[in-house]
Design a protein that fits this description.
Elements: H1 15-25, E1 32-37, H2 46-54, E2 61-67, H3 76-84, E3 88-92, H4 97-106, E4 109-111, H5 121-128, E5 133-136, E6 150-153, H6 158-165, H7 170-183, H8 186-202
Parallel strand pairs: 1-2, 1-4, 2-3, 4-5, 5-6
Helix pairs in contact: 1-4, 5-7
Length: 204
């Protein structure tokens, strides 16, 4: 299995855009922000995340949802959830390249509460920006970022994971994930794939 490469050159830091986005979303350094990033699909567990977040007390918490729904998926329920809980911030729609690093700069934790499957793209983005993560137990199949960089949760136990992650050493998790992200180069990704192809050809 080849670890997905990171994207440090694709999404460079943009402090001015980060500051502008913080103003637009009304998210400050004093807030504790959970980020859901990526296309909005049914299997990604966004409903369970919103439900878990809404039952978490504390005016300093923010849930930032950024991404576009795939065709046929309604986000009316998200608008209703945001209207009833002003701590939820929505950036529904296409995310431009310049906004990717800015969105991650606002996040204290990346949450990928997928219910059916987990691709490594969003995890690779999290590692690119050194972001601590909350991931389902199923994500352990990739062994990234491991317990040092993520809080894992079993089915139905996402609320507990959101509570636990805040008690972790987030600075240490960021450092671990940043180091890991820097090591995940495209060359490192290609090597095991090339080895697997060579082995297959030899065994024919």
């Amino acid at each position: 299995m080849a670890a997905h490469a990171g994207y440090p050159e694709d999404y460079p830091a943009n402090p001015s855009r980060s500051e502008a986005l913080a103003r637009e979303t009304e998210i400050s350094d004093a807030d504790f922000t959970f980020l859901f990033f990526g296309n909005i699909r049914r299997y990604k567990g966004l409903e369970s995340l919103v439900e878990a977040f809404r039952h978490r007390p504390g005016s300093h918490y923010r849930l930032l949802v950024a991404g576009a729904p795939i065709p046929g998926v309604s986000t009316d329920w998200l608008n209703e959830a945001s209207a009833s809980d002003p701590r939820i911030r929505l950036r529904i729609g296409y995310v431009s390249d310049v906004d990717v690093s800015a969105l991650f700069s606002l996040a204290d934790v990346l949450v990928a509460p997928y219910t059916a499957t987990l691709t490594s793209g969003v995890v690779s983005l999290g590692l690119t920006f050194g972001c601590p993560m909350v991931l389902p137990e199923a994500a352990r199949v990739y062994d990234l970022p491991g317990d040092a960089g993520a809080e894992y949760f079993a089915p139905g136990l996402l609320p507990e994971a959101l509570a636990r992650i805040e008690t972790r050493n987030l600075g240490g998790m960021r450092a671990h994930n940043s180091r890991l992200g820097r090591s995940l180069t495209w060359e490192a990704m290609a090597q095991p794939i090339a080895t697997a192809y060579r082995k297959t050809v030899r065994n024919r």
